[in-house]
Amino acid sequence: MRIPIYQIDAFANEQFEGNPAAVCCLEEWVEDDLMQKIAKENNLSETAFFVKKGDIYELRWFTPEKEIDLCGHATLATAYVVFTYLDKNIKKISFKTKSGVLEVFKENDLLSMIFPSRKGDKCKVPNELIKGLGREPKEVYKSRDYMAVFETEEEIKNLNLNMEELKKLDSFGVIVTAKGKKVDFVSRYFAPKAGVDEDPVTGSAYCTLVPYWTEVLKKDEFVAYQMSDRGGVIFCKDLGDKIKISGKAVLYLEGYVEIE
C-alpha cells in the first residue's frame, strides 16, 4: 500500500516555524491500528488522515499515542494540501470530524477555520497544576483542557515545568495564557498525556482562549502568539458559539508511506 504524505508547517510564514503536521491522503479508510502506528512513526504532535466522500472530506487526527477529537493546526495543514495540490479551484472545504463539520476557506493570503467555541468554567486550582507549572496562576478555567491565566508574558516564558505532575490532571492538556505586549494575548500548550510535552501552535486551544479574552479585553477580534520555541501567529475572532482561527501554512515535505 502506498499512501501519499505531506508535512506542512501550519501557522507559519516560512519553513521551520509554526507547528508541523503530517497529512496522509487515503482513498478509503484503513484500520485504526495502522493509522496509530503511522502517527507514532511520524512522531509529530499530530498526523491527519482524510478521505474524500463526494463534496465533503472525512478527517481524523492522531497524536503519537491516541486519536483526538479536535486539532487546529493539522486541519489547517490538511486544507493547505487540498487547496494547493488536490483541488485548486475550490475556495471552501467542509471536513466531517468527531467535532462535527468544520469549514475552512481561503481569505486573502490566509486560511481561515470555523471551530466550535469551548468556553471554560472557572474552577479551583488543582495542586498538580501548580506543581506541574512551577507556580500558581491567578485563575484557572476548565473545558477539554485546563486553562491557567497569568499576569505577564515573563511568567509564562519562565515556567518550571514538571510533565509527570501535568499527566496526573483530569484533562487532555493544559493551556497557559497572559495578556501580550505586542499582541493581544500569548499562550503555551502542554499535552504530555498524548505524548506531546509542548505543542508548538495549538489551534484547538483557541476555542477556549478566544471566549475568555473576548470577555477580558471587551473585543472580539485578536492577534495572538504562541510562545513555543518555533512560535506561531494566530488571527482569531469570536463568532458567538463558534470562533474563526486564521493562519498561513508552508510545505516542508512531500512523499509516500510504503506499507508492506
UniProtKB/TrEMBL annotation:
Coiled coil: none annotated. InterPro entries: Phenazine_PhzF-like. Keywords: Isomerase. Pfam families: PhzC-PhzF (PF02567). SUPFAM superfamilies: Diaminopimelate epimerase-like. GO terms for cellular component: cytoplasm. The active site is at E46. One of its GO terms (molecular function) is isomerase activity. It comes from the Bacteria. Belongs to the PhzF family. This is PhzF family phenazine biosynthesis protein. It comes from Caloranaerobacter azorensis.
